Each structure stands twice: as structure tokens, then as C-alpha cells.
Structure prediction request, 110 residues.
Amino acid sequence: MNIGHNIPPSEQWYHAAQKWADLNAAADMLEEGKSAFLSQKMIRLGDMPVSRAELTVKASPEWADYIKKMVRAREQANLAKIEAEFLKMRFTEWQAQDANQRQELRMVRT
Prediction:
């Protein structure tokens, strides 16, 4: 936790969570668009059996690039989610440590 910084922990978490939401939406768009991308590529091949068109598209560099882009987008979203959860955990740890210190001070004073 960046306790020495002027950014409150809740705001740090908010920004990290917002980043995750944006990256997650981008990954979702790629995942949801996968079928449309495949269909568009198959239609461009013209009149050929569906199974052959699908095989042709899935063997293409464009398909491989799309899949790599989709997987990388999901990876980035997952990493952003981990960062947001990490900030939340650090704040919880900080709260517990702060409470323990207050309790120790009370015990010393009595």
C-alpha cells in the first residue's frame, strides 16, 4: 500500500478496478466477436463447403493473429484484476496492522 502517498487506498483500488473493467470489456468484445470474425472470413472464401471453409480460415495467419490478440487481451484483463485484488488485500492487511498497533498502545497505557 502506498501509505506515504496522498492517494487514498480506496481511490487506488478504484483506478485499478476501472482499468480491469476496461480491459475485461476489450477481452469480452474479442471473445464475443470470434464467431462473427470466422463467419466473415468464411463468406469471403466464396462457394465452398462450410467444413472446408472453416478449416481454411482456422489455418490462416489472420485467424492465428485474432486468437493471439484475444488471449493476450484476456491475460491483460486478468493481470489488471489481480492488481485490483492485490490493492484490496494490502488495504485489509494495513487495516489489521493499524488495529493491532492501536490495541498494543492501549495495552501499554493500562
